[in-house]
Give the backbone structure.
Amino acid sequence: MKVVTYQGMNFEPYITQQEIAQRVAQMARQIMDDCPSQNPIFVCVLNGAFMFAADLFRACPMQHAEITFIRFKSYEGTSSTGQVSEVMGLNEDITDRDVIIIEDIVDTGVTAHQLRQKLAELNPRSVKMATLLFKPASLKVGNPPEYVGFEIPSKFIIGYGLDLDGQARNLSDIYVLKQ
Ligand code: IMP
Ligand code: MG
């Protein structure tokens, strides 16, 4: 693997697709072990989480599991705007369901916190969050996610669904901005 360049910035290899796959399988087992019902609803937060969600959902072969999609946007360039806008909402009835939110990355926690508040108003049985990446030092609001793939330092990451202004999502491995 080599350094990749976007918008004049260099990114170096950070987490390989093999490491991601191993961790996703472990997370799936943990989620299934903890889940009180066989019909949880996974809520994938678009756009960034689409690739992780596809892998995680496939790794959770629970008989009546469902997946749906919601869309939020908070990032511009390489930093959070602090403002979260909902671009696409939830159509499903989640009353009395076990909900597992799937996020690509939790940074300031603003998106996660708002999403949990919104979902809690819809009277689910439980709400948990699975994120592939978590930057604990950046967390400003809310609690840490229940399921974390990798805890990472507060650096900018791309690949495996994560983008820089819409690009780099199609990299199979995860890359970090070279300082
Ligand atoms: P938060 O609301 O600050 O926790 O940010 C959450 C969202 O910002 C994530 O779901 C990502 O879409 C985006 N984000 C945060 N950190 C990164 C990063 O390092 N690379 C790409 N996107 C990021
Ligand atoms: Mg996201």
About this structure: DSSP finds three helices and ten strands in the chain. The CA atoms of residues 27 and 125 lie 21 Å apart.
